[in-house]
Q: What sequence folds into this?
């Protein structure tokens, strides 16, 4: 039996499968009063209330949760929907993460606009398959329009351009995909096939094409803050992980373009070809934006592809006040933007845009029963095959929230981040480590006297102290997460201020419109509570002793 | 203005965006009487009724639909939810495809069990991100359990095996992904990195690793009925499209393993290394299952990876009666199974399973803020990054439909296909071209006298006739689709019976439990109606003249 220790599923809640019961689950919806129907109603009428009621705050140890999901038997006698639903409520929903809670400011997911839920339901109910027009019909031009709107946001080409290319069967302004990782992979895939010549690379393979080109290999250059999906991309595409060249950043966590230039020259001298330079618009760990205009110039000089990973920061273009931060993005050959981040769409929606409507032809593929040549089938030029009509959610966002609405969301996030940075700076017990450029910032627990000691002491002691602080901060983050009332994430990068030492810090993302100033104060209060625990106090007194 | 010719959106249905309206869409659900809420209710209480009411049968020409989705402006003044919803109902839902209709037997998507909709809603409402435990908590072991259950279905290892590996942080029994294409790519990615040594391939790149191995290149061997995603995979992975070696099939559309063997030997002699032999369990165009056991032996002999693409046919393992068709699948090193096909889950759910829990370590990746080494984060070993908790739907299916329920669905589909094959064979006007092995079959309109003529005439005339029949069948399929009452898909492959000539035929997939025998008769009746149209009659009389 698969449900060990799950007393709420009893033998009499198991069903016999017969023709009638099978027909029923395909045709007759549950009665209004049944568990699942009640959950649906609760979610529709008060989502936050539902989540607060059902998600337990305090974290259960993972091994205990695993115990509930440990049998691999597929039951012959299945469970009634209501019994199963009760189980899911108690063991899965209860132990999930309240990603939309205003005090959970460590995730890239936020609260969603209410209309995203019923719109998602329409997508599921219609169950279109975007791979070909025969299973998606009007969803095909709708998705193309969404890509066109985003293309317009980034590249601002004229009416003639969009009139010509938006619905052209053999061309694509981009691809909709399951997330930013697939988007980044697609961008570099297209770039690879274009740079080596589509025939060479796709027919002979990378090995043959590299031999033919007489080069040592292909390299991709990106800031050391580049997303890990780029590492996945160079591995998958056969370039090799070592050929993702990471470039150091300045103290604002922006890539140093002169170092990027020098490394590129060096690699070219060694016989490598630069496939792509990559700029980041909203680094995952720091929210920083690379100097895109400068990277664009470098790309032009090198004659290589220029990709911008704007998975996070792309929607900043909605803001009159802050879009200047992304200056130069319109020079990019390709741009990744995630919809399930700052477009406030549920998980599973990314996009890659290409400046040139012909770019994606280098990965084009046809088959007889599907994605026929000359058809409008979107599967001709996408990495994925069958996939859902998630683009409708972006379409809905663009039309219901609109430019003004997204602008307000972006502006408020950035201003909230500035406010939080300010209260951290004014606080005696915290140290601001990553000043927000967009709506992401980083800080750690480090009392003023410790920071003063760090500044006046020798290197060895400073490193020792920082290691102790790492330990304390890591534990504060873990304890805060376990308590389940507020949440920040944590990461670890090098800081110039401390001679490049890698420091653990709290990463905060302020994209949830429900997060108010009071929530930010609450986050700090909770952290101080855990910083006051016995072990932390003991370590602090060790530091005090050493600092003298 | 983006909504050209959409009189239902008037200026007074545009909203001002201000703090209040923005707050409202993030917190307050629509009133019960509002359009979107009414749609939700209609979908919940009678999905089929909703679809029948809102999807118009007759196809609108694509350029007209495109017209409605042609502006790339992002509106500054957005639309009220109700106005937008009206637009979507009228222009998108109305022009979508009724994929769950019992008379639509050309798609791989079917009607869904009713509980899939509210369960999908729970996934959207919780909006967990499977990439790391911090944003998915209990969803992580739940997904691992699903992969374990499927692993057990395919490989049937003992309790000790699953106890040891199911929840082991550094191991994976497979990966959940957005669909079969990503699953197939993942399988070959893992195989490539393992066969060349992870260090070599992922560090030096494919070029360096191939040089080091002293080989000419890597090849993948699969039947000519292999899915196009394999072509995508070899392109993406840098192997080159020419290095996907397609092997001819026998008259039952099963790969000829002796030819596969000979080609492999030949390629090895030429200096190539076989990366993988691939077997198909349920070919997309014919539903045929390759002799997996024989391919397994060949793989063993070659010392290469053995992948089975069971995206379609995998769930046949639920059937006591038919699981023998997949004999040998447990020898596969990796297996692709789609959940959004015969697990009756909505679009966006695929899986790849690996026999060896260590296999996926060759693509492992870590980062500081996420997917940390030793963590349980699923993102460590998956191609995709952020992704939704779709595994819950498979979990629900396995527990509510169960082994018995899926068995009934599989058996009924196959038996329905046999029944349909029989009435086609008994029919004077149709020719059965692909006899069903699973629940997929192929046939075309070809009156008895034409078939008799084809058999007695010379090759040249036969080819001429077959081209004429191609034309008629293509047009029948298009007309049937445009009418929107019933639907079959069409494809084109070579048939031994006609000296390998490529013939257009109707592809039928009988997975929808709502499809009854009467629907099958209706499909044929509609086709005969279109076969009676002027142009078809004219061509038939041309054939008659030539046949004499």
A:
């Amino acid at each position: 039996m698969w449900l060990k220790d799950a007393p709420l599923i009893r033998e009499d809640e198991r069903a016999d499968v017969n023709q009638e019961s099978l027909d029923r689950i395909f045709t007759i919806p549950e009665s209004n009063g049944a568990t699942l129907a009640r959950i649906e109603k609760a979610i529709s009428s008060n989502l936050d209330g539902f989540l607060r009621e059902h998600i337990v705050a305090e974290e259960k140890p993972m091994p205990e949760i695993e115990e509930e999901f440990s049998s691999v038997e597929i039951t012959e006698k299945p469970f009634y929907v209501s019994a199963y639903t009760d189980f899911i409520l108690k063991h899965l929903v209860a132990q999930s993460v309240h990603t939309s809670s205003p005090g959970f400011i460590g995730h890239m997911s936020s609260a969603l606009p209410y209309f995203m839920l019923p719109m998602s339901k329409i997508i599921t109910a219609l169950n279109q398959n975007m791979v070909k027009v025969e299973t998606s019909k009007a969803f095909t031009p709708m998705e193309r329009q969404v890509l066109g709107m985003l293309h317009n946001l980034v590249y601002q080409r004229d009416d003639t351009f969009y009139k010509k290319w938006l619905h052209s069967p053999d061309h694509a302004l981009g691809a909709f995909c399951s997330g930013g990782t697939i988007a980044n992979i697609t961008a570099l895939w297209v770039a690879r096939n274009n740079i080596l010549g589509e025939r060479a690379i796709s027919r002979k393979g990378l090995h043959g094409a590299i031999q033919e080109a007489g080069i040592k290999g292909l390299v991709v250059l990106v800031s050391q803050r580049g997303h890990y999906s780029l590492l996945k991309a160079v591995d998958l595409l056969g370039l090799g992980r070592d050929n993702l060249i990471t470039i150091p950043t300045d103290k604002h966590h922006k890539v140093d373009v002169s170092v990027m230039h020098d490394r590129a020259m060096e690699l070219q001298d060694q016989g490598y070809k630069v496939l792509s330079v990559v700029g980041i618009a909203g680094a995952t760990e720091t929210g920083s934006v690379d100097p895109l205009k400068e990277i664009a110039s470098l790309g032009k000089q090198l004659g290589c592809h220029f990709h911008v990973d704007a998975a996070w920061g792309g929607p900043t273009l909605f803001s009159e006040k802050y879009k200047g931060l992304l200056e130069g993005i319109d020079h990019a050959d390709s741009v990744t933007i995630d919809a399930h981040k700052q477009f406030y769409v549920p998980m599973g929606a990314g996009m890659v845009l290409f400046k040139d409507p012909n770019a994606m032809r280098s990965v084009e593929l046809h088959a007889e029963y599907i994605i026929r040549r000359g058809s409008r089938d979107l599967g001709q030029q996408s990495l994925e095959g069958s996939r859902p009509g998630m683009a409708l959610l972006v379409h809905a966002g663009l039309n219901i929230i609109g430019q003004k609405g997204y602008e307000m969301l972006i502006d408020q996030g950035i201003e909230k981040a500035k406010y939080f940075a300010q209260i951290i700076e004014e606080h005696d017990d915290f140290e601001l480590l990553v000043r927000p450029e967009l709506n992401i910032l980083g800080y750690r627990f480090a009392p003023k006297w410790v920071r003063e000691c760090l500044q006046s002491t020798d290197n060895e002691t400073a490193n020792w102290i920082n290691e102790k602080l790492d330990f304390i901060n890591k534990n504060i983050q873990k304890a805060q997460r376990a308590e389940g009332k507020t949440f920040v994430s944590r990461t670890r990068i090098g800081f110039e201020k401390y001679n490049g030492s890698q420091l653990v810090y709290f990463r905060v993302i302020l994209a949830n419109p429900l997060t108010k100033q009071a929530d930010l104060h609450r986050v700090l209060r909770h952290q101080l509570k855990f910083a006051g625990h016995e072990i932390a106090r003991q370590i602090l007194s060790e530091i005090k002793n050493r600092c003298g």
About this structure: Chain A has a mean pLDDT of 93.
